[in-house]
Specification:
about 725 residues; about 50% strand
Length: about 725
C-alpha cells in the first residue's frame, strides 16, 4: 500500500468472490477501486448457491464498486475467454456480483453470437432478457439465423437453446436461405443441429422471401424446422401459396427452402387459377415456385364430361408477368400447354373426339383446342378428322368449323352442294366436296354443337346455333335416323345472267345411301323472289288479268306456315331494323317487304321442290302455291304454278315459271342465256308483247351483251308443265 499526495495506491492481488486480479496500479477511493491488470481470472463454481463460469482475460481494466457489490472488468487487448471448454468469448464488459457473472456486449462462440446490454452467465450457460441472436453455418462464417429482441438462454451442458421474441411484431431472418418469418419462439438443438420454431396452430406465421428476385414471395405456415446440417428450412402446415395469379394447394403442407432461397419443387399439389375467377384446376401437379409472380409446373387437368372421366397432362404450365408497364406493375397470368395423342380416345364433348394440343389461359374460362376433331356419329358415313382451333366450354360445347381441313389438307365443307361433274345435289358434313369447284346451294360452316337429348348435331352460323336467331344458315343432322336438313339463304340460280333469284327455305336428305351407286334424294321447301327485266306494260296487263280472273282462287294463308315464313323471308330483308315489322305483318297474314327490298318481278310463296339429277334442276312438286306479288303489286293468291330452277353442271343456269290463274288464263316465262321466252293465253298480253318496239325487247346490258324478250310458241308452256310433272316423280 502507498499513501501519498498521489492518493491511496496499491500493488498486489485482489480477490472478490471467485475472481482474482493481479495489479500494479490499484487506486483506492472511498467507494471505488480501479486499476489495470495483466490478467483476470475467475474460477467456475457449480456447487455454490450462485453458480458462475470460469472466465479469464488479459490486459484488463477493473472498476470495483464494493458498496454496489459489483466489479466491472473490461478487456483492453482481446476478448474474455469463458467456460472451461475452449471457443467461447465475451467482448465488452464483465460484471461480477454476488448474484452471478453478467456481461455487457457480445457473447461469441463457434456456432453463434448473442449481443445484449445484460447477459447472465452460468457455469456453461448464457441467458438474456433482451438480446439479438445470430447462429452461424456449420462449415463457414455465414449467418443462417438472425433474430432480434428475444429473451432466452443457452445451455451448453445439454446443448440446447430456447428463445422467444419480446414483441409479437418481431421477425427472424434466415440470411443464408433468404427468408424471414414472424414465428417468434424457437428451440435450438445444438447436438442434433436443428432449430425448431414454435407458433400458435390457430394463427399460422408468415414466411417472406427477402430475395429481390422472388419479389416478396410469402405464405403462411404452422411449424418450421431449420436443419443446420443441410442448411434447409423445413416449413409445415402450409395450406396454400400464391404465385403469379394462382393458388398452389399443398397435399402434405410441407415446404423446403434450400440455401440461396430456392424453394424445393412441390409435389402432388393442386393449382387453382386464377385466384379471382378460379376457372381452372390442375391436380397432381409438380410446381417450382420461382417468386411471387413466377412459377413453373406440370400436372393433370380434369376434363370430365357426362359419361367420361378424363385428364389432360399439361407439361408446360407457366405463371408469369405479361403486357406493358414496369416489372412491379405488370399483370400476371397462368398459361399451360398439353398434348392429347391418338391413343387416348379423348373427347371434347360426348360426341366429339380430339387429338392435338390443348392450351390454357387463366384469364379465360375455356380451354383452347388446336389439332383435329372427329364426330362420333353412328349414322354419319365417311367420318373424317377435321382441323380444330377453338375455345370450348365443356359444359356447353360450341366448336368452330369454319375453314376446316382434313389431315390431307383438303378443305372440308358442311351444307348442300351441286356436283360440277355429275350434276347431282348432295349433302356434306365436315367432308370434302366431290370437287373443289362444286357449287354450294347452302353453306352451313361456322360453328357446331351437339344436343345429347335429341341426339342431333347443329351446324351453321353462331347466331342460329347459339342464339336461336332466325337469321343465318343452319344444318341439322339427326343421328337417330340419319337425315340431314339445312335452312337459311339458298343459293339458287347463281349462274343466271341478267336476272337473279333470291330464295330462303330448307333442304332435306337422307345421309345414308343404300349402296355406292345410289344418289341422294334432296327435297325442300322455299320462298323465292325472281328479279327479271320486263317492260312495265307487260306487268300491268298481267296484274289486271290476274286480279280480274282470280276471284275463285283461294287466298294465300301465311299464318298456317308461320314458322317457315318467319325464317324464309329473312333473305329478302336487307336492314335488320325493319325485320320486326315484317314479322308482325306475317302474324296478320300479310307479306309486305320494305320498299327498298321490294324489287322482284315475281315473289313466290312457299313451294316444295325436289332435285332431279337427270334434269339437274329443282322442280316444284305441288301444283298450287301462293303468288305473293307481281312487280311489287300484292296478289296473295294460291294459283296453279310450276317452277324449275335449272342449274346444270356446265353453269348455264335457266329459269322457267308457269302461272295458271284460271282454266283459260295462264302465263309462261322461260329464261336461258340472255333470252327471256314469254307467252300467255291472254290475247291482250300477247298483243302487247308483239306491239313492243325493238328497243323495249332488245336491251344492251352493262357488259355489252344483248338481253332479249321473245314471244314464244304456246306449245312450249304445255311441254314445260308435262316436263315438270314427269321430272318430279322420278326418284
Amino acid at each position: 500500500m502507498d499513501l501519498s499526495n498521489r492518493g491511496f495506491l496499491g500493488e498486489g492481488k485482489v480477490e472478490y468472490l471467485t475472481a482474482s486480479i493481479e495489479s500494479e496500479d490499484i487506486v483506492f477511493r472511498p467507494r471505488q477501486m480501479t486499476g489495470t491488470a495483466r490478467r483476470f481470472f475467475m474460477t467456475e463454481d457449480r456447487a455454490g448457491k450462485v453458480k458462475v463460469p470460469q472466465a479469464s482475460g488479459e490486459d484488463v481494466k477493473v472498476n470495483w464498486l464494493p458498496y454496489r457489490d459489483s466489479m466491472y472488468v473490461e478487456s483492453k487487448a482481446k476478448d474474455f475467454e469463458l467456460f472451461k471448454s475452449p471457443g467461447y468469448f465475451h467482448k465488452g464488459v464483465l460484471v461480477l456480483t454476488p448474484s452471478g457473472l453478467k456481461g455487457q456486449g457480445i457473447f461469441d462462440w463457434t456456432e453463434g453470437r448473442m449481443s445484449s446490454k445484460l447477459i447472465s452467465y452460468g457455469p456453461f450457460q448464457a441467458s438474456a432478457d433482451t438480446a439479438d441472436l445470430q447462429i452461424k453455418a456449420l462449415q463457414r462464417d455465414d449467418i443462417v439465423f438472425d433474430s432480434k429482441n428475444v429473451n432466452g438462454q443457452l445451455d451448453f451442458d445439454v446443448l440446447k437453446g430456447d428463445f422467444k421474441a419480446n414483441t409479437a411484431e418481431s421477425n427472424t431472418t434466415l440470411p443464408l436461405n433468404k427468408y424471414r418469418t414472424s414465428m417468434n419462439e424457437f428451440s435450438w438443438d445444438m447436438k442434433g443441429q436443428t432449430i425448431t420454431f414454435k407458433s400458435d396452430p390457430n394463427n399460422p406465421a408468415n414466411f417472406v422471401s427477402i430475395d429481390p428476385e422472388q419479389d416478396t414471395l410469402q405464405f403462411k405456415g404452422k411449424t418450421a424446422l431449420y436443419d443446420m446440417k443441410s442448411s434447409q428450412l423445413k416449413i409445415g402446415g402450409v395450406d396454400k401459396i400464391k404465385a403469379a395469379d394462382a393458388f398452389i394447394y399443398l397435399s402434405d403442407g410441407d415446404v423446403e427452402i434450400l440455401p440461396g432461397g430456392k424453394m424445393q419443387i412441390l409435389k402432388n399439389t393442386k393449382i387453382e387459377a386464377d385466384t379471382a375467377s378460379k376457372y381452372h384446376t390442375i391436380n397432381r401437379a409438380e410446381v417450382e415456385i420461382l417468386g411471387r409472380k413466377t412459377y413453373k409446373a406440370t400436372g393433370f387437368y380434369e376434363y370430365n364430361i357426362p359419361g367420361y372421366t378424363q385428364e389432360i397432362f399439361f407439361n408446360n404450365i407457366v405463371g408469369e408477368r405479361y403486357g406493358g408497364g414496369s416489372m412491379a406493375t405488370k399483370a400476371v397470368h397462368t398459361t399451360a400447354k398439353g398434348q392429347v395423342g391418338d391413343s387416348t380416345a379423348f373427347r371434347m364433348d360426348v360426341k366429339t373426339r380430339f387429338k392435338g394440343d390443348v392450351l390454357l389461359n387463366s384469364a379465360k374460362l375455356n380451354l383452347r383446342f388446336e389439332g383435329y376433331a372427329q364426330l362420333d356419329a353412328d349414322k354419319l358415313p365417311n367420318n373424317q378428322w377435321f382441323t380444330m382451333y377453338s375455345e370450348v366450354d365443356k359444359n356447353d360445347p360450341l366448336l368452330n368449323i369454319k375453314n376446316v381441313k382434313n389431315a390431307d389438307e383438303e378443305p372440308l365443307v358442311t351444307g348442300f352442294y351441286l356436283s360440277k361433274e355429275s350434276g347431282i345435289c348432295y349433302p356434306r358434313i365436315l367432308l370434302p366436296p366431290y370437287a373443289r369447284v362444286d357449287r354450294d346451294i347452302i353453306d352451313c360452316e361456322g360453328v357446331f354443337q351437339y344436343d345429347e337429348k335429341t341426339d342431333r348435331y347443329f351446324f351453321g352460323d353462331s347466331s342460329r346455333v347459339v342464339d336461336n336467331s332466325l337469321r343465318g344458315n343452319q344444318m341439322i343432322f339427326d343421328n337417330r335416323v340419319g337425315t340431314v336438313t339445312a335452312d337459311g339463304n339458298l343459293n339458287i340460280g347463281s349462274g343466271l345472267n341478267y336476272m337473279h333469284v333470291t330464295a330462303g327455305g330448307k333442304l332435306k336428305s337422307d345421309f345414308n345411301l343404300p349402296d355406292s351407286t345410289s344418289t341422294y334424294t334432296v327435297t325442300g321447301e322455299m320462298m323465292s323472289g325472281i328479279q327479271i327485266t320486263l317492260p312495265k306494260v307487260l306487268y300491268d296487263v298481267m296484274i289486271n288479268d290476274i286480279r280480274s280472273s282470280s276471284f275463285d282462287a283461294p287466298q294465300a294463308s301465311y299464318t298456317t306456315q308461320g314458322a317457315f315464313y318467319q325464317q324464309a323471308i329473312l333473305p329478302f330483308i336487307s336492314d335488320p331494323a325493319t325485320e320486326q315489322e315484317v314479322q308482325d305483318n306475317l302474324k296478320l297474314n300479310i307479306i309486305s317487304l320494305p320498299k327498298k327490298d321490294d324489287k322482284y318481278g315475281f315473289l313466290l310463296g312457299r313451294h316444295t321442290v325436289i332435285w332431279n339429277d337427270e334434269y339437274q334442276s329443282f322442280l316444284s312438286t305441288e301444283d298450287k302455291f301462293p303468288l305473293i306479288s307481281v312487280n311489287g303489286e300484292i296478289i296473295n293468291k294460291v294459283l296453279n304454278m310450276f317452277v324449275e330452277y335449272k342449274m346444270p353442271s356446265g353453269g348455264d343456269d335457266r329459269f322457267y315459271l308457269y302461272i295458271k290463274v284460271s282454266p283459260d288464263l295462264w302465263y309462261f316465262y322461260g329464261y336461258q342465256a340472255g333470252v327471256m321466252n314469254v307467252v300467255s293465253s291472254s290475247t291482250r298480253f300477247n298483243d302487247t308483247l308483239l306491239g313492243l318496239k325493238p328497243k323495249e325487247t332488245q336491251l344492251k346490258m352493262p357488259d355489252g351483251e344483248l338481253y332479249e324478250i321473245i314471244a314464244a310458241n304456246p306449245s312450249i308452256a304445255d311441254a314445260f308443265v308435262n316436263r315438270v310433272k314427269a321430272g318430279r316423280t322420278k326418284q
